Amino acid sequence: MIKHVVFWKLKDSALGNDKAANALLMKEKLEALNGRIDGMLKLEVGLDFSATDSSADVVLYTEFASREALDEYQDHPEHVAIKGFITAVRSERRLADYEV
Predict the structure, then answer these.
(1) Residue 64 and residue 67: Cα distance in Å, rounded?
(2) DSSP for 7-74, written as a single string
C-alpha cells in the first residue's frame, strides 16, 4: 500500500477569498475525488485548527493500492482539474509518499 500525504500553507487571500474560505473550497474539491479514482483506497482532508507558525492550513491523506495507482491519480483528469485552484491559493506545499 502507498500512502500519499500533502500539507499546504495557504495565502492570506487569493481569488477574491480569504484563507478560511479557500481552505473550505479546497477541502470540498479534494473530497469530491473520493470514490472517483481507481486504486485510491482512502482520502481524507483536514483543516488545521492550531494556527501556529509551524502548522499547515490543509492536509491531504490518501492511500493507494500501488505506486501505479498513485501515478494514475496524478494524471487523472478530475485531479488535474483542481490543481489550478490549489496552485493559485497555496503559498507552500510539502508532501511525502511512502510504502507500507
Answers:
(1) 7
(2) EEEE-SEETTEEHHHHHHHHHHHHHTTTTTSTTEEEEEEEE-SS--TT--SEEEEEEESSHHHHHHHH
Taking the C-alpha atoms of residue 24 and residue 17, their distance in angstroms, rounded to an integer, is 11
- Read off the pLDDT of residues 29-38 as tens digits, 9 standing for 90 and up: 999 999 999 9
- Please choose, from the candidates 79, 84, 82, 85, the residue with its C-alpha nearest in 3D space to the C-alpha of residue 4: 79
Residue 55 sits in which domain range?
2-99
What digits encode the pLDDT tens for the residues 47-94?
Answer: 999 999 999 999 999 999 999 999 999 999 999 999 999 999 999 999
Instruction: Give the span between the Cα atoms of 88 and 74, in whole angstroms.
Output: 18
Q: What is the CATH number of the domain that holds 28?
A: 3.30.70.100
Q: Do residues 55 and 48 make contact, with C-beta atoms less than 8 angstroms apart?
A: yes
